[in-house]
Amino acid sequence: MTDIDGAVALVTGGQRGLGRAFVDELLRRGASKVYATARNPEPSADPRVVPLALEVTDPESVAAVAAVATDVGIVVNNAGVLYPSPLLTADIDNVRATFETNVIGPLRIAQTFAPVLAANGGGALVDIHSVLSWIAGGGAYGASKAAFWSLTNSLRTELTGQGTQVVGVHLGFADTDMVKAITAEKVSPAQVATAVLDGLEKGENEVLVDDLTRHVKAALSGPVENLTIRIGR
Ligand SMILES: NC(=O)c1ccc[n+]([C@@H]2O[C@H](COP(=O)([O-])OP(=O)(O)OC[C@H]3O[C@@H](n4cnc5c(N)ncnc54)[C@H](OP(=O)(O)O)[C@@H]3O)[C@@H](O)[C@H]2O)c1
């Protein structure tokens, strides 16, 4: 169980989309300070929000953030990219960038902030995956989220000793820039933030945000050919 009231949090990609909703909901629940990162951060009118520049694929950028955010107790690994393309025709540079941002980036954040969380009493690491961690149809993005899911599960065991709660988050579609070209039922970013922070406060290890995600998780023990999705554009 992680107490948000009075906590200091860091949200990667915290100035738009789901990240911004996490920042707002953390503050609503009483967080005393939230570091909200962006590659080109904008100032905030709220004194509790500390904008920081972060490029998760750049080790020096991650180290610079860690040098400032030494009081963090909750880290939300939210930043991510989606380059929509079938695997067979995907630009390999985009595949590499997808894995650099969605897999290596959050691992680098976890490695860098694990000692910070330990020094601040254990705290929590929240990793934002996707329903596409489990189903075909998401190309390199889905593959990256499957890898990220696996990382999260191993990090949970590695961080148990220092008392860090590790929450893996899966969701279908939320109404942000990332999926604006996709026609699908979408939840609001605020709904996602509420579900995730409810789970964090209750001490859960995993949050399944929507019905699609709960349905897919239940189908994992069934035939693999049922684990597919057609994304409308
Ligand atoms: N929306 C959905 O339907 C959905 C569903 C499942 C999972 N997710 C996941 O939820 C997370 C947030 O997605 P979103 O929907 O809010 O997407 P979004 O609106 O496209 O925002 C992406 C966020 O990631 C940050 N980012 C991207 N590349 C980065 C990099 N190299 N270094 C640092 N920050 C970087 C962006 O920061 P800048 O401001 O610097 O651009 C931005 O804040 C992602 O991990 C995504 O995969 C989203």
How does CATH name the architecture? 3-Layer(aba) Sandwich
Instruction: Label the structural class.
Output: alpha/beta
Please name the fourth-level CATH homologous superfamily: NAD(P)-binding Rossmann-like Domain
Bound molecules: NADP nicotinamide-adenine-dinucleotide phosphate
How many helices? The count is 6
Fold-level CATH name? Rossmann fold
What does this entry look like structurally?
- The chain has 233 residues and is α/β, with parallel strands linked by helices.
- The chain has a single domain (8-226), classed as Rossmann fold, CATH 3.40.50.
- The chain is built from six helices and seven strands.
- A seven-stranded parallel sheet has the order 3-2-1-4-5-6-7, with helices on both faces.
- α3 (92-119) runs parallel beside α4 (139-160).
- The radius of gyration is 17 Å and the shape is globular.
- The N and C termini lie far apart (39 Å).
- The mean pLDDT is 97.
- Residues 12-13, 15-19, 38-39, 54-57, 78-81, 101, 128, 130, 171, 173-174, 176-179 line the site of NADP nicotinamide-adenine-dinucleotide phosphate (NAP).
Key features?
233 residues; binds NADP nicotinamide-adenine-dinucleotide phosphate; Rossmann fold; alpha/beta; seven-stranded parallel sheet
Quick recap of the structure?
This protein is α/β, with parallel strands linked by helices. The protein has a single domain, classed as 3-Layer(aba) Sandwich (Rossmann fold), CATH 3.40.50.720. 40% of the residues lie in helices and 14% in strands.
